[in-house]
């Protein structure tokens, strides 16, 4: 995990957000639906739902969309029946890839994901084939622009809040937590007045894997095809890319 920054990937994703707003809202609606269905419709007692609502608001998703997704999850006999499915596989040069999906049709989703892998130098693997290469972590990013806080002060705040690790660059403080502590750490940092540019529970690669220059374009195409699929919610990998634009 050390030395691996998620921030460049996040900035690239945000830059393309406007072009994919409708698809983003669709995915967020699914995730809000699942969070409310699994653990209840009250965000004050459902941290997963609260996190998804925060992500939706950060994406400027209308409140009506959020409310509608929660109502679908709590209306007996109504709404879609989504399943959470994880696919594991390899990209070019054997880089590890994890794909999280929310689907109402496993056959459709599995076929689309298999095609995205196979047509771009990759292959699907068995369950457990690459997941051991990733750790589930809470991730928080705080941008440093206009923030008069040095690294030592931020580290003290992170440790007092219960965070595990702080990585610092010129642009951002990146904080990692145990997933069980993520909600408490986020709330503690917000209570100190910090603005969280990003906050999520995610999968962090334990080590990065190099990819040959002549395979990098192919791998990026594979990632794009996976991320563009309506059923795919998140894609994680351990490729050591210069940037994530």
UniProtKB/TrEMBL annotation:
InterPro entries: Integrase-like_N, TACO1_YebC-like_2nd/3rd_dom, TACO1_YebC_N, Transcrip_reg_TACO1-like, Transcrip_reg_TACO1-like_dom3, YebC-like. GO terms for molecular function: DNA binding. It holds the Pfam family Transcrip_reg. Residues 1-21 are annotated as: Disordered. GO terms for cellular component: cytosol. It comes from the Bacteria. It is found in: Cytoplasm. NCBIfam families: PRK00110.1 (NF001030), PRK12378.1 (NF009044), YebC/PmpR family DNA-binding transcriptional regulator (TIGR01033). Belongs to the TACO1 family. PANTHER family: TRANSCRIPTIONAL REGULATORY PROTEIN YEBC-RELATED, TRANSLATIONAL ACTIVATOR OF CYTOCHROME C OXIDASE 1. This is Probable transcriptional regulatory protein SAMN04488507_1003172. It comes from Trichococcus flocculiformis.
């Amino acid at each position: 995990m050390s030395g691996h920054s998620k921030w460049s990937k996040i900035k690239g994703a945000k830059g393309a957000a406007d072009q994919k707003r409708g698809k983003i809202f669709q995915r967020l609606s699914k995730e809000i639906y699942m969070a409310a269905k699994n653990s209840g419709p009250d965000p004050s007692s459902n941290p997963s739902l609260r996190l998804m609502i925060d992500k939706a608001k950060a994406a400027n998703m209308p409140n009506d969309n959020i409310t509608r997704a929660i109502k679908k999850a709590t209306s007996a006999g109504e709404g879609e029946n989504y399943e959470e499915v994880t696919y594991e596989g390899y990209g070019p040069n054997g880089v590890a890839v994890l794909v999280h999906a929310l689907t109402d049709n496993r056959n459709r989703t599995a076929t689309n994901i298999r095609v995205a892998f196979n047509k771009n130098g990759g292959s699907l693997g068995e369950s457990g084939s690459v997941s051991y290469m990733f750790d589930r972590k809470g991730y928080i990013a705080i941008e440093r622009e206009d923030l008069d806080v040095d690294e030592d002060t931020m580290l003290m705040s992170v440790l007092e809040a219960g965070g595990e690790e702080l990585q610092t660059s010129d642009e951002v403080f990146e904080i990692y937590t145990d997933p069980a502590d993520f909600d408490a750490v986020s709330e503690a940092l917000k209570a100190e007045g910090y603005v969280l540019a990003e906050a999520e529970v995610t999968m962090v690669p334990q080590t990065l894997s190099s990819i040959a220059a002549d395979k990098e374009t192919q791998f990026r195409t594979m990632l794009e095809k996976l991320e563009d699929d309506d059923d795919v919610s998140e894609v994680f990998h351990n490729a050591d890319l210069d940037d994530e634009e």
